[in-house]
Each structure stands twice: as C-alpha cells, then as structure tokens.
Write a structure and sequence with these properties.
The complex is a heterodimer of chains A (568) and B (613). By secondary structure, chain A is mostly helical. Chain A is 68% helix and 2% strand. Chain A has a two-stranded antiparallel sheet with strand order 1-2. Chain A has a two-stranded antiparallel ribbon with strand order 3-4. In chain A, helix 9 (162-178) crosses helix 10 (182-190). The relative contact order of chain A is 0.04. Chain B has helices spanning 11-44, 47-65, 71-87, 91-107, 115-148, 152-156, 162-196, 412-416, 451-477, 482-497, 499-506, 516-525, 537-560, 564-567, 570-575, 581-608, and strands at residues 208-210, 215-219, 229-233, 238-244, 247-254, 261-268, 275-278, 280-284, 290-291, 305-308, 314-319, 336-341, 344-347, 358-364, 378-381, 388-393, 398-400, 407-409, 422-428, 433-437, 442-446. In chain B, helix 1 (11-44) packs parallel to helix 16, helix 7 (162-196) runs antiparallel to helix 16 and helix 9 packs across helix 10 (482-497). Helix content of chain B is 47%, strand content 17%. Chain B has 3 domains: 5-196 and 450-612, no CATH class; 204-268, no CATH class; 275-446, Jelly Rolls (Sandwich). The chains are: A mainly alpha (568), B alpha+beta (613). Chain A binds chain B through residues 66, 70, 94-99, 102-103, 106-107, 110, 134-137, 139, 142, 146, 149, 180-181, 184, 194, 546, 556, 558-560, 563-566, and chain B through 2, 106-109, 111-114, 117-118, 222, 227, 286-289, 300-301, 303, 310-312, 344-345, 347, 350-351, 353-354, 356-357, 382-385, 429-432.
Chain lengths: 568, 613
C-alpha cells in the first residue's frame, strides 16, 4: 500500500462524511426563530415531527441546562440510571434517610423532566407519605412545602399539563387546609412570607384576591390561582392532554376552594359578614361552575361521541327528553299502548299488585317489586322504533300506503335520536351533579350566608366554651338557642340533614347530652334535632377522648388499659 | 445515624476473633496454591521436576531473595512506577475532580435540610470513585504493557528480585494515589467549607424586645434558603441563632440603645466530630420483665424496635462493661451526664398535635445491692430526626428515700455507678404512643474531636481502598494481560462490594427463584419466581447443580475479596460522628493482611513466569 492509496482513501472517507452530513442536517436541523428579523424555520424532519407531536423540549416547558447536561452525561444509560435512582429512593425512604430521598428524587426529575408521573408520584410521596413520618408538625409542614415546591418545578418543565397545575393547587389548598394539622398548617402558611413569594412567583395574577382577612395570603385563595392557571392551560390545549380526568372534577376545584376558604374562616372563629361574603362569593362561583359548558367524554356515556353539557340545565335536558319521548310515542300511540299492555300481561301477580298499590303506602318489598315492574314496562326509543319497523313492514296500509309508512318510520327515527340525545345529556349531567355534589354545596353556600346560620354557630361556639367552665345555665341557654336556629335551618333545607354540616354538630350535641345529665334530664322525643341524633348514633364523649382525672392506679390520667403484671 | 452492629466490637476483641480464620485462610490458600502449581508442573514436565522447581523457588525466595531485599531497589522500582503513572497522564483524574467540584454545586439539592451532609457525601464519594478507577487502570495495565513492549527485560536483566518488582509497583502507584488524594482532600475541604460558609443579617426592627427578660427574639434574614429563630440577651450581649439546616450561629450585640446592631458569626455545628460512647441495649416488657427485644410497630425495616408509652416497657442502655470503656469521673468532666439521643416517635393516635411526646430518663445501677437502684425519672420531650442533647447535672439526679419518701440527691459515683458501670433507661410516658430506638440512638457524648482530623480519617479509608485495588490490580497483572486483569480487578471490587448480598442469595435470604441458570430458564419460559420451576426432574437437578456450583464459587471469591463498603466512612463524617480508632485500626489491620498475602502470592506468580525468571 503506497502513500497515494492511503491519501486516496482519506479523501474518500472525508467525502463520504461530508455527503452524509447533508441528510443528517436535513433530518436533524433544529427549529429556529429569529426575534429580530421575525424569520423562522420549522427545522429538519425530526424537529417537525417533534413539533407536530408536541414532543420538542421547548414546547413542553422550560429547558434546564442542568437537566439537559445530566441527561447527556448518562451517555444513553438514562433508563438504567433512573431505575437505580428509583430503587435508591425507595431504599432511603425505608431507612428513614429522608434527606437522601429528596436529593435522589430531584435527580430523577432532572433525568425525566417531561414525564409528569414522576412529579405527581414523588410530590405525593414528599407531601403525604414522608411528612407524616415526622412527629413535629413544623417538620411536617416543611415536607408538605417540599412536595408543593417539587410540583411547582414540575409545572415549569411541563407548561402544557393542566393536571400538574391542578395538583399544585390541590396540595396548597387541600393538604394545608384539610389535613389533621390544618389549623397549625394554615397558621404557618399565613406567616410564611418566603413561601408566599415562591408560590406566587410564576403567577401573573391580578384578577383573583389572594389575601385573607388579616392581609396575608390564604392557602385556599392561593390554591384558586393555581387552579385557574390549570384551567387556562386546559383551555389552550387539546383534549388529549386530559386523558383519565373528568372535566367536572377538574373544574370543580377552584370554586370549591372558595367554599373551603369560607368554611376555614368560620372554623377560625370568624363568624360575621366576612365569612358570609366569602360564602356568597363561593355561591356565585359554584353557580358559574354549574353553568359552565363541560365536555363529557364518549367513554363516560357510551354513545354520540363527546358531548357538552351544562349542569345548570339538567332540568331542561330532562324536560326536552320527556317532550321528545312523548312526541315519539304519539307517532303511533296504539302501537305504544299495545306494547305496554303486552308487557303488563307478562308481569307476575305480585308485581302487578305492587304497581297498583299507592306508592305512599308501599312496603319495602312492594317498592322493590314496583321498581322492577316499572323497569319491565319501560319502553326505550330503540325498542319502540324496532316495533314500528316491524309494523311498517307487516301492514304498511295502516299508515296509508307504503310511502307514507316509510315517511312515518323516518320521522319516528329522527325523533328517537333526539330523545336519546337529550336523555344522554340528562343522564350525564345527573352524573356530573352527583360527582360534584353540586346541589349540596349550592345549598350549603345559601344557608351559610343567612344570619340564622351565623347566629347558630356563634351560639354553639359560646356554649362549647362555657360548658367546660362549669357555667351550665349559660351554656344550656346558648345550646338551646343554637338548636332552635339549626332546627329552623334543617326544616327549610332538609337535604342538609344527611351531610357534613349536620355531622359536624355531633360533638356539640354530645356535650349537650352530658350537660343535660347534670340536670338529670335526657333528650326528649320532641327535641328539634332528634332526627340528626338518630341518624348518627353516638356515645357521649368528651373532646379529645382521653381526659380522665388522675388516680393512684392511673397517675397520668390516661384512658385505656393499665398494665397489670400477669398472674402466675 | 445508622450504625452497623459489627462496629460496636472493640479492636482487641475483633482482632482475636479474626486472626484464627485469617491464618487458616492463608494456610489453605498457600497449600492450595502449591498443590495447584505442583499438579500443573507435574503434568507438563515430571513430578520430580515439579518438586525440584517448587522447592528451589521457595528456598530461593525465603532464604536468598528475602534477606537480600533492598529498599533502594524497591524505591527505584517505585520511582519507575511513578514516572510511568505520570506518563499516563494521571493528573487528568485530578482535573476531572476539579471540574466535578466546579459544577457539582449545580446538582446538589440546595434546599436540603442538612447541606453539610450532602456536600461531604458528595466530595467523599466522588473522590473514592475516581481514585479507585485510577488505581484500577494504573495497576492493571502496567506490568502487561511492560511485558508486551519487552521493556521488562531491561529490569529483569538487572539484579532486581521479583518481590521488589511487585512491591515497587504497588508502592509507586500507591504513592501517586496518595499525592492525588492529598490534593483532592485539600480541595474538597475548601469546597465544603466555602459551600457552607455564610452569615445572616438581623434588623433590630424585625425583633421583639422583652423588657422583663431583657432579651430580643425574632428571626434572621432569609439567606441560603433558610433563616434562624434567634434569642439575644441584652445582659450578656450575646445570642444564638437556633438550629436550622443543621447549624447555628453565634450573635454578638454591638452598640447601645437606638444604635444597637447584631453581628452574626459563621455557621457552627455542621462540621462536627462527636465522640459517642455506646452502651449495650436491652429491653423490659410492658410489665417490667426482661424482654428479648422491643416491639415491632409494623415497619418493614427492622433496625429500630419500639417501646410502648405509659407502661413499664423500657429500653435500657448499659455503659461501661467490657464491650465499652469503663465509666470514670473523666467521662463526666463537668459533673454532668452528657446524654445524646435520637429517638423515633410512633403515634397510634393524633393526640395533641402541638405537643411533643414526653418521655423519661431513669439512671439505674448495675449492682443489685447498690444503695440506689434507680434514680427518679428525669423528663424530656422527644425531638425526632434531630439529636436531643441532655446534660444531666449530678445535682439533678435524685432518688426517693424509702424512709422519708422524699427525693434525695444521689452521689453518682458512690451510689449509682458501680465498677464503672451505669445503666440508662428510657420510657415513653404517653398512653398508646411509642418510642423507637436502636443501639446507636442513645450514647454518652465525649469531648468532640477535630473535624479536620475526622475528615482526614475518612480519606485514610479511601486510601486503604485504593491500596487494596492496586494490590489486586498488580497481582492480576502478573499473570493476565492488561484488559483481563482490569476486568478481574473490577470483578473483585464488585464481589467485595456486594459480598453480603451474594451470601444472602446463597443462603436464600434475599431471593426466591434460584441462581442465574434457573433465573434464565424462568425468564425465557416466563415462570414467576414464586412458583415451582416447571421442568423435568432431570433438568431441575442439572440446573440446581450448575447454580449451586456457580453460587458457591461466587460466594468463596466474594469472601476472599475485601469488603470495600466497610472502608467507606463518609456517612460518619457527614453525620458528624468521629471515626473511632477501633474502626480505623481494624481497617488498617485488614489492609495490612491483604498487603502481606497478596505480595507473597504476586511474588511467587511473578517468579514462576519465564519472562521474569
């Protein structure tokens, strides 16, 4: 091999490399946009594909040099590194080495910044699982904050993921405002100016109020801002981003936060026009949520593809469906009557008897039978159309000739489709109403705005304070005033009797029972809240459940089994 | 901090326990090696020739080479190795390390609760990874390259003995590693110190002044992701910024009246070397009878066990017996019992959220006829995940006089501590709440050691790991070619690192599903690890036999390999605990043992190679 051959080879290799660079450039050229000239290039084929599937780094969210260099540093071993890190994180958690858990979790997130499950799973781990490992509530609060920070970082990397924004709002609202330590957490949040800066730094929000009555940001109001961000992201995105989450759950979060804010004010002892105004706003926002057009995914109702409904129009949907159904059966009323009569003949004697019995006096068994019988008699539009089709084919003359019979069938099919469409909307909105507990919250907001409710709460609060001070007469008077007011409220809104509002009165009712015992009295059958007491069977219990006067056998005054050495 | 139970054994006890198996292993290895050598020569040549060669080699090695060992020649060989190492651009490793430190800050979790731990773990682990990789590459390739390039002839033609060549290489490479370690250690210390050094400012307007107590309370400025609560006395003109992120600051008051200002000192308490004196842990059950262990509250990690509150369930640490050093008045120089504890709390009900769980310390005598059997309880509140320091002044130690039923002060050394022994009992006071503890969670705290010395001790641990890797690298390179000896060295590191895991597999403690062959069969045929292997009886026997042989070999080799993780003391430095001399001595002894054995084997192998003969 002489020098010429070697040289020729080198030239050939370099030429091949240069030639190969062209297709590589065509494929891999990045998308660019010049801010000065305004010219932009959509980039090579790969860049275009990434853009069309929403996979390019810049379309997903912030691109972090640290994250990118870490991904590069793993030399294609990223999946293995991630598996090892997950394993390490689990191990550290088991060994209660929580500093290393956070450090490891951060590394995982840097390696997979656009995989939202990491952010959600590990944020939950930090804020819910690890936080409770700590005995001091201040430490717990720090870990909750860590979970929230982690989620906020996640939103920066994934700015088109409404769920991450919603989850951040959820942690700021629910975890701080509804956990066992809610009073302590809320108070810590209230004075945590540094954290306020953190949770508000990415928010350009001037529309919503974030400050509570004392002028500091309130966790519930701050959570509303995050929910709102999520809604905005959702509104600009496509529907696919929302797989697995129902819009009703997603959109209920923000108005419900307003209601929880109002409840929190009451629980903090603020029983005045401020809390009433908060409920009033909650009521408005909840109504706005009810009037919002919500998408129902096809898999939720099984027909017609995705449909849009408004929960506030539930009654209208039902009316439209009923009216359309009536006009459907009116197409051939005789056919309908025949179908019903035929089915009626198939009912058992017991079922017929149940149907004939006045609903007001039916026993449980009869109710069950009647329900079954009604189901059997019910004719849905498809069944009716099938029967009509058979009749058209068998005796078109009864419709005035074949052409007229066909027209009748077409008209009936059109009406039947309308029935089904309205029925689907009715059913879907009924489901959404149930899922969001819509009516309860609406009524609750309405009730809490009344002066009666505020006065009733103030009276209970006073009585609960007076009773342990042995000011029995005063406590009794306050309790009785409160029960009278609550009785009035429950009479007007009986649906509230079976819910949280009534249940929350139970500890105070228990104290009232104990108070009556001091007078050798009992709750009478005519007691205004007897219904609630019967609903929630209870044993009178003192608050805290562990108060007992110390005795020589039990010097710590604790309730529970006192250890006794085993006898031989 | 989690402490391995083997660390509680004192060096003397360990040494006498370890020496017999060690010698047995040496003898077995030597005899086995000689038999193997004999068989190999006997087959290739003739048994008589084999005896002749082996005999001559041994004779010459012991009676000719060893006495005429020349330190000058060894050092010359070492110098050669150093030159070779420098030619291989080992300083690149140092450059990589510096780059790592420069950018390391990017990847460290700045909001971590204990930044000192994170910084220290980072520098110590990156140093050890880099230096071990360096030792591996240098040692594994050097001799094979010499043999390949025939440069070894220029040495073997000189009057240099095989063991001098071997030792020279090891010492030379170790010297290079030592110098690199010294440089890395210095830079690491500066990195940690600079990374943690900070201060805060305090604005008098942000503080509340209590004129009765004559002190300010409030908080410092928010810097480096944290602030501190402060208490500053106007009388002493001094104050303290309470613990946050694992450290405190001292505060000095400057000026008076409206000109008052506060100077905040550098962080203290994050770079520590506590000296814990550990006791032996035992338990009493809820009725006060002796129990085998504490309770399990359902945690999968069994390191800690628990005691039930408001019962006689007690955790008792016994200090001063043979396992730990005896308690003398020097143990308590300030007439205080310096207890430190880090107990876990497990609540079965929420209780009072804002209150900590209360417990009590009871000092007990080990002598059943001592005047004071146990002191009156001394109360404390458990601070979970933060070390609680309790300095119990002798004057606070009281007992209930049986006659007058009044608390009376105890003469700690005469009434309570007998034969230098003392027991410390812990009880939880609250019903249905639990305290969790392991042996290392409560100790008597001796005077602190210097952090820098502790940091250096940790580097000695890394140095020993490097030496061991070098030894194995040079050993393998005496009879394997470069890349194979590199792989062999790596295998020894892996086996040594996972020796515990390998033994656990061997004894079926860790996994079901058999050894590698069985796992392969299960993988291919998609059979779960928990089900019985569905193959014919004959096939199962073959698979089990192959797996058994494989695992046995792995286990034996892993037992021979040094346990590298044991030399890693980064955790102790990071958590602020002194690396005890017992532990350091043990590691040094192990290293020395390997050094001697591997030097002998390496020399013999090198002698037996024709190139060096």
């Amino acid at each position: 091999m002489n020098l010429n051959t070697i040289f020729a080879r080198k030239v050939a290799y370099i030429t091949a490399i240069v030639l190969l660079l062209f297709p590589l450039f065509m494929l891999g050229q990045p998308a660019t946009q010049s801010t000065e000239s305004g010219k932009s290039s959509s980039g090579g084929k790969l860049a275009q594909l990434r853009a069309s599937y929403g996979l390019s780094q810049s379309s997903l969210g912030e691109v972090d040099p640290v994250s990118s260099s870490l991904q590069l540093a793993t030399f294609g071993m990223r999946p293995i590194a991630i598996i090892v890190l997950w394993h390490k994180a689990t191990k550290y958690q088991e060994m209660e080495d929580f500093d290393n858990v956070t450090a490891t979790v951060n590394q995982i997130a840097k390696l997979q910044p656009h995989f939202t499950s990491i952010w959600k799973f590990q944020a939950h781990n930090l804020a819910y699982n690890i936080s409770v490992e700590f005995d001091d509530y201040k430490h717990r609060y720090e870990w909750v904050k860590r979970g929230i920070r982690f989620l906020m970082d996640g939103t920066r990397y994934n700015q088109s993921e409404p769920k991450l924004f919603e989850e951040t709002g959820n942690y700021i609202g629910q975890k701080i405002g509804r956990s066992d330590e809610k009073h302590q957490f809320r108070s810590l949040f209230d004075s945590d100016a540094e954290f306020h800066d953190e949770v508000l730094q990415d928010i350009d929000e001037t529309v919503l109020e974030i400050n509570g009555p004392n002028g500091n940001p309130d966790n519930w109001l701050v959570s509303k801002i995050w929910y709102r961000q999520g809604e905005q992201v959702y509104n600009r995105g496509d529907d696919d981003q929302f797989a697995g989450v129902l819009p009703v759950v997603f959109f209920a979060s923000r108005p419900r936060s307003q209601i929880y804010y109002a409840i929190a004010l009451e629980e903090d002892g603020l029983l005045n026009e401020v809390s009433r105004a908060a409920f009033s706003q909650g009521h408005d926002e909840w109504e706005e949520f009810g009037a919002k057009e919500l998408r129902i995914p096809a898999e939720f109702h099984g027909q017609f593809g995705d449909i849009n409904i408004r929960m506030s129009e539930y009654a209208d949907y039902a009316r439209q469906a009923d009216e359309a159904q009536e006009s459907l059966f009116a197409v051939d009323q005789i056919l309908y009557d025949d179908m019903v009569s035929e089915r009626r003949l198939k009912l058992t004697k017991a079922e017929s008897h149940a149907l004939e019995t006045d609903p007001a006096v039916r026993s449980d068994y009869l109710k069950q039978l009647a329900y079954k019988a009604e189901g059997q008699l019910f004719i849905n539009p498809q069944q009716y159309i099938m029967a009509l089709r058979d009749k058209v084919e068998e005796s078109p003359e009864s419709f005035g000739g074949e052409d007229s019979a066909e027209d009748t069938l077409k008209e009936a099919t059109r009406i039947a489709e309308r029935v089904m469409m309205w029925r689907a909307r009715e059913m879907a909105s009924e489901n959404y109403l149930g899922l969001s507990n819509y009516q309860y919250w609406l009524t609750r907001c309405k009730v809490e705005q009344t002066k009666d409710a505020t006065d009733a709460r103030i009276a209970v609060q006073n009585a609960d304070r007076l009773f342990p001070q042995d000011r029995l007469e005063e406590a009794r008077a306050e309790y009785e005033q409160a029960w009278e007011l609550w009785g009035k409220i429950f009479k007007e809104y009986p649906e509230l009797e079976g819910d949280e509002l009534a249940e929350n009165l139970m500890p105070s009712l228990a104290k009232y029972v104990l108070l009556l015992e001091q007078y050798d009295e009992e709750i009478g059958d005519d007691f205004v809240l007897k219904g609630i007491i019967d609903r929630y069977q209870f044993a009178p219990e003192l608050e805290g459940g562990s108060i007992q006067f110390p005795t020589p056998e039990n010097p710590d005054g604790a309730v529970g089994e006192i250890p006794v050495p085993p006898t031989e | 901090m989690v402490v391995d139970p083997s660390e509680f054994i004192r060096f003397g006890d360990w040494f006498w326990e370890a020496i017999v198996p060690f010698l047995l292993t040496i003898v077995t290895l030597l005899v086995g090696g000689l038999v193997f050598w004999f068989v190999q020569l006997a087959v290739r040549r003739h048994p008589r020739v084999a005896v002749d060669i082996i005999g001559r080699t041994l004779h010459n090695s012991i009676f000719r080479d060893l006495p005429s060992t020349s330190l000058r020649r060894i050092l010359a060989m070492a110098r050669l190795a150093i030159h070779e190492a420098l030619r291989s651009r080992v300083l690149v490793i140092f450059a990589i390390f510096v780059v790592l430190l420069l950018f390391g800050g990017w990847f460290l979790d700045v909001e971590n609760d204990h930044p000192a731990r994170l910084y220290l773990t980072f520098v110590l682990s990156s140093t050890s990874y880099l230096i071990i990789a360096l030792a591996m590459f240098l040692s594994a390739f050097s001799l094979p390259n010499d043999i390949k390039n025939r440069t070894i002839y220029t040495i073997t033609t000189k009057p240099v003995r095989s063991h001098e060549i071997f030792m020279g290489r090891v010492i030379g490479f170790a010297a290079v590693g030592t110098i690199l370690l010294l440089m890395m250690g210095t830079i690491s210390y500066m990195f940690v110190w600079r990374g943690l050094d900070h201060t805060h400012t305090i604005d008098v307007a942000d503080l509340n002044y209590d004129s009765d107590r004559k002190e300010w309370t409030g908080r410092t400025s928010f810097d480096r992701h944290h602030f501190h609560d402060v208490i500053i006395s106007n009388e002493t003109k001094r104050g303290i910024a309470m613990t946050s992120k694992g450290h405190q600051h001292e505060i000095t008051v400057v000026g008076e009246g409206t000109d008052v200002q506060f100077e905040v000192g550098p962080p203290v308490g994050d770079l520590l070397a506590r000296v814990p004196v550990y006791g032996e842990l035992s338990f009493l059950d809820r009725y006060g009878n002796q129990a085998e262990s504490g309770l399990n509250v359902g945690k999968s990690w069994g390191y800690r066990t628990y005691i039930e509150g408001n019962t006689l369930n007690t955790a008792i640490w016994k200090f001063g017996d043979q396992a730990t050093s005896q308690i003398t008045s020097a143990t308590f120089p300030d007439e205080k019992i310096p207890l430190e504890m880090d107990l876990r709390v497990f609540r079965t009900n929420r209780g009072d959220i804002e209150s900590k769980i209360r417990g009590e310390v009871i000092l007990m005598s080990t002598d059943p006829i001592a005047k004071v059997q146990e002191s009156l309880p001394i109360n404390f509140e458990a601070t979970e995940f933060a070390t609680l320091r309790m300095d119990i002044p002798f004057s606070d130690v009281k007992y209930l006089d049986p006659i007058s039923a009044k608390p009376i002060s105890v003469d700690v050394f005469n009434d309570l501590i007998v034969n230098g022994e003392l027991k410390v009992g812990i009880r939880c006071k609250e019903h249905a709440q639990f305290f969790g503890m392991a042996r290392a969670d409560l100790y008597l705290r001796g005077p602190d050691q210097s952090f820098i010395i502790n940091f250096a001790k940790s580097y000695v641990g890394i140095w020993m790991q490097m030496l061991l890797v070098t030894l194995f690298g040079v050993l393998f390179s005496t009879f394997l070619n470069g890349i194979i000896s590199l792989k062999a060295t790596l295998a020894i590191i892996v086996l040594g690192t996972f020796a515990g895991f390998i033994t656990a597999i061997q004894t079926d403690d860790v996994s079901t599903g058999g050894g590698p062959i069985e796992a392969l069969v299960r993988g291919v045929t998609q059979q779960g690890a928990e089900t019985e292997l569905n193959v014919s009886d004959g096939a199962r026997d073959v698979i089990e036999a192959l797996d058994g042989a494989y695992l046995w070999t792995m286990n034996v080799v892993s037992q021979i390999a040094p346990r590298y993780p044991e030399f890693n003391t980064a955790d102790k430095v990071a958590y602020g605990y002194d690396i005890s001399m017992d532990l350091l001595l043990r590691h040094l002894t192990v290293t020395l043992g390997y050094f001697m054995v591997i030097s002998i084997i390496g020399t013999l192998i090198l002698r037996s190679r024709e190139v060096a003969a």
